[in-house]
Write a structure and sequence with these properties.
2 domains; Jelly Rolls; nine-stranded antiparallel beta sheet; alpha+beta; eight-stranded antiparallel beta sheet; 8 helices; 509 residues
Length: 509
């Protein structure tokens, strides 16, 4: 990160650190201004937008008037604190705000929940985090803690907090909220709970957040107290610097992402730096791949949403082209492929080798890269193999099956964690392939853990880059989801990050 950005971000962090605030001090930190004066309700009015959203004309005017008139019945000021009795309309700022840094403290009671509306939009959630998860209401997860963007779509980034940071009842909690454009960062008690997630527009899901809007403090079922409400406006240049710095820190995976296929609706990729089209081969011709009875998208049966189901062994193999995706070249090739699989290999696969993922070129003797299950062993072994030029891996010209396991360029896992009940995350990497001055390496990860490496091999390939293809489902029977390709070797920590994404690779873009 350039030094000027580091200084800007460091300055911002110093200015807004909750540790600089004093519990009963209404003096704003440097650069901030108070939006509650600690004495009266000046600058605030009553509004619950849900009550008036579907009204119009005189009925809406009457409702808004009534909410304003009843505001002071439920909201009072005590010892510098803004207090709500659990009823009435929300506390709504007269002023509207755009890009801001917002500091606020709150204290609530058991069985109540509340929230903070940004630009008039719900919401940064406040829970009674002692509540037990109710399987009859699966989208409500108070036990995970406060601070999430509760009105984002269930499963979307930011909806649930990264960590539980709530303090016990009777204690004050401190929020630091940063809103820039549609992106939201939330710190609760100095712990990051939402990391730059896009806040959805509750009122119009297909539209971004409005550029400006009021801050609202929700009331919902129990007393809540607020104090030390401070805002700092973020000007355009600084907003750009913050977003760029955040992208550099958390978006490197996005910069490396070259293809992502969610398989939520079709076989084509959702994102690609090359051709998004999924093809199938008919002779030497590539045709657009459509789903079939044997290879189809099954709604809500994937690891994330829908997924592909290969129902039986067949020759229909969805394929993606190299250009802009795999980045294969003859000088120095680095890439990572990530995919989720679900099957019982010993019961679902038919006899013979099975390759859920292959990378092939114009001639198998010039190279062949594949994931495979063995054909005879029980349980069937799972393997990652990189076969370079034929004379390198097979100087004696014998069949693959006749070469001892330890003499093959592969990683073999005898009891890999595949089942019908749970998805397994598979990642393989290729490093310095065709590089003359550095060793070539291939690595295999399962569920975020390194299983082994292909090392001490010359992994030179001889493919024509225009003929290189990523092929799925060769003799495979089972489920597949969330295919992703990256244009470099991911580190072990990055593989863990991909494995831990709650909504799959779509979270990266």
């Amino acid at each position: 990160m350039p030094i000027d950005r580091i200084l800007i971000v460091a300055t911002i962090l110093a200015l807004v650190s909750p540790g600089t605030l004093h519990a009963d001090d209404l003096t704003p930190p440097e650069g901030f201004r108070a939006i509650f004066n600690g004495k009266n309700l000046d600058g605030w009015h009553g509004l619950n937008p849900h009550q008036s959203a579907k009204l119009s004309g005189e009925k809406k005017d009457a409702n808004l008037k009534q909410q304003r008139e009843e505001f002071a019945k439920h909201w009072t000021v005590e010892d510098g604190e803004l207090v709500n009795d659990g009823h009435g309309s929300y506390a709504n700022t007269d002023e509207e705000y755009g890009d801001v840094e917002f500091l606020i403290e709150y204290k609530t009671v058991a069985k109540a929940d509340s929230g903070i509306y940004l630009r008039g939009t719900p919401q940064v959630q406040i829970w009674d985090s002692g509540q037990v998860f109710d399987p009859k209401r699966p989208t409500r997860k108070p036990h995970l803690g406060s601070g999430g963007l509760f009105n984002n779509t269930p499963g979307a980034s930011g909806r649930d907090p990264l960590v539980k940071a709530d303090r016990p009842f009777g204690c004050w909690n401190q929020f630091r909220i940063r809103q820039i454009g549609g992106r939201t960062w939330v710190w609760l008690n100095q712990q990051l709970v939402v990391d730059g997630a896009v806040m959805e527009n509750f009122w119009e899901r297909t539209q971004p957040l409005p550029e400006k809007g009021p801050i609202m403090l929700q009331t919902h079922g129990g007393e809540i107290r607020w104090k030390n409400l401070f805002v700092r406006d973020i000007e355009r240049f600084e907003a750009q610097q913050i977003v760029e710095a955040a992208n550099e820190q958390t978006g490197s995976l996005l910069n490396a992402l070259s293809l992502h296929a969610s398989f939520d609706k079709e076989l084509d990729a959702d994102f690609s730096r090359g051709d998004r089209t999924s093809y199938v081969r008919k002779g030497k011709t590539l045709l657009h791949a459509a789903t079939t009875d044997d290879v189809h998208v099954t709604p809500e049966a994937g690891r994330f949403g829908s997924g592909v189901h290969f129902t039986k062994k067949n020759s229909y193999r969805p394929t993606f082209r190299n250009s802009g995706v795999l980045g294969y070249n003859g000088q120095s090739w680095n890439t990572t492929v990530s995919v989720w699989l679900r099957l019982n290999p010993n019961e679902d696969l038919e006899p013979g080798y099975c390759d859920p993922v292959q990378i092939i070129g114009d001639d198998g003797k010039k190279g062949f890269i594949f994931l495979e299950w063995s054909k005879d062993e029980r349980p069937r072994y799972f393997r990652y193999a990189v076969r370079p030029l034929f004379d390198i891996w097979n100087p004696n010209k014998v069949s693959w099956a006749d070469i001892p396991f330890d003499k093959r360029p592969m990683v073999q896992v005898e009891r890999a964690p595949f089942s019908r009940e749970a998805w397994t995350h598979v990642v393989f990497t290729l490093e310095n392939v065709n590089e003359k001055t550095a060793p070539s390496v291939g690595r295999l990860y399962l569920n975020g853990k390194l299983q082994g490496s292909i090392e001490d091999w010359d992994l030179t390939l001889g493919w024509d880059p225009s003929q290189v293809l990523l092929v799925l489902g060769a003799s495979y029977v089972g489920h597949m989801d969330d295919l992703a390709v990256f244009n470099r070797v991911l580190s072990a920590a990055e593989v863990q990050q991909i494995y831990g994404l709650k909504n799959g690779v779509r979270e990266l873009y």
